[in-house]
């Protein structure tokens, strides 16, 4: 990782390494089962999986931006947003990412990209309308810390592995590759079973990593700006405004929760086990303690 002035987090690094190790192990098991099951047709699976992984890794930033309706903006088009990103990048001593705006009333922000040089930071029009300048800087510092710590790339790869667990097994079941009358019943049971196990475990692992990385980004962003209270204020304001957003808009944004600053919820009472973010209370408590620590002589 290129060095920046964002506070390093060894706990985050260790969790990313362990998550990728276990997901890679699960992925090897899944592909191994499919290769055995498909017999001579296994090269097709390898080519499909490899091609999709390459496309997801190299074009993840464009895919995410397109899916959210984000458009890159110039300093002339969004001077305040660019100015905030410029100040934070200078403060953090890191390359400036591309800057985008998504035209939606859902107040949120996200960062994506496989590295600092290919990263993109996006804020929604709903967020820009609602936040004060210091609150916006707190949110952007949070998102830039994801880029600096490279957990954006790890989350992109991790989410891809879970999706592939379902996709490649559907291909096998739909096409019936490698089946014979003798092993058809066994394949019908084995392939979906392995796929379900891999998907569930990968889902839970990515959720655990996602919750920790949000706490890490809160801390790193608040330390960089020196204003945890501004980030806490932005969190409170954004979370409070979610209930006023039309349900249809929240449902459209919900698939991107793992990459958002705050989750866009279309329902109530999501289990903490399934949530992509820590609770608002937990995040505010951490920021409050950090603010107290920074205020001590």
Question: How would you describe the overall organization of this protein?
Answer:
Its cofactor is Zn(2+). This protein has one domain (10-295). The protein is mostly helical and 297 residues long. The chain has a four-stranded mixed beta sheet, sandwiched between helices. Helix 3 (79-92) crosses helix 5. It contains ten helices and four strands. Helix content is 66%, strand content 6%. A hairpin with a 7-residue loop joins strand 3 and strand 4 (120-124).
What structural category do the secondary elements indicate? mainly alpha
Query: What percent of residues adopt helix (DSSP H or I)?
Result: 55-70%
Radius of gyration: 21 Å
DSSP strand content: 5-15%
Q: How many beta-strand segments?
A: 4
The largest sheet is:
4 strands, mixed
Regions with pLDDT < 50 over 5+ consecutive residues? none
How would you briefly describe this protein structure?
It contains ten helices and four strands. The chain has 297 residues and is mainly alpha-helical. Residues 76-289 form the Peptidase M48 domain.
Helices and strands, with pairings:
Layout lengths: L9 H29 L3 H26 L2 E3 L6 H14 L5 E5 L6 E4 L7 E5 H6 L2 H17 L1 H25 L8 H42 L2 H15 L4 H7 L26 H16 L2
Subcellular location: Cell membrane
Enzyme class: hydrolase
Organism: Streptomyces hainanensis
Summary keywords:
297 residues; 4-stranded mixed β-sheet; 10 helices
């Amino acid at each position: 990782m290129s060095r920046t002035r964002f506070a390093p987090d060894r706990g985050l690094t260790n969790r990313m390494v362990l998550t990728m190790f276990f997901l890679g192990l699960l992925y090897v098991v899944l592909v191994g089962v499919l290769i055995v099951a498909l017999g001579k047709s296994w090269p097709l699976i390898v080519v499909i999986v490899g091609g999709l992984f390459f496309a997801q890794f190299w074009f993840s930033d464009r895919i995410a931006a397109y899916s959210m309706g984000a458009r890159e903006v110039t300093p002339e088009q969004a001077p305040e947003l660019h100015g905030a990103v410029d100040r934070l990048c200078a403060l953090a001593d890191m390359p400036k990412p591309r800057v985008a705006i998504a035209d939606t009333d859902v107040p949120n922000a996200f960062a994506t990209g496989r590295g600092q040089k290919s990263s993109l930071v996006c804020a929604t029009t709903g967020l820009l309308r609602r936040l004060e300048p210091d609150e916006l800087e707190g949110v952007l510092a949070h998102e830039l810390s994801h880029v600096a710590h490279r957990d954006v790339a790890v989350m992109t790869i991790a989410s891809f592995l879970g999706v592939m667990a379902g996709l490649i097994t559907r291909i096998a079941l739909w096409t019936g590759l490698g089946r014979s009358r003798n092993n058809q019943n066994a394949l019908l049971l084995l392939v979906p079973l392995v796929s379900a196990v891999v998907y569930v475990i990968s889902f839970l692992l990515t959720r655990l990593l996602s919750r920790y990385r949000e706490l890490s980004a809160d801390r790193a962003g608040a330390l960089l700006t020196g204003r945890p209270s501004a980030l806490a204020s932005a969190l409170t304001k954004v979370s409070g405004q979610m209930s006023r957003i039309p349900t249809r808009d929240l449902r459209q944004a919900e698939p991107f929760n793992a990459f958002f600053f705050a989750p866009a919820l279309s329902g109530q009472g999501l289990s903490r086990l399934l949530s992509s973010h820590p609770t608002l209370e937990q995040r505010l408590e951490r920021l409050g303690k950090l603010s107290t620590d920074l205020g001590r002589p």
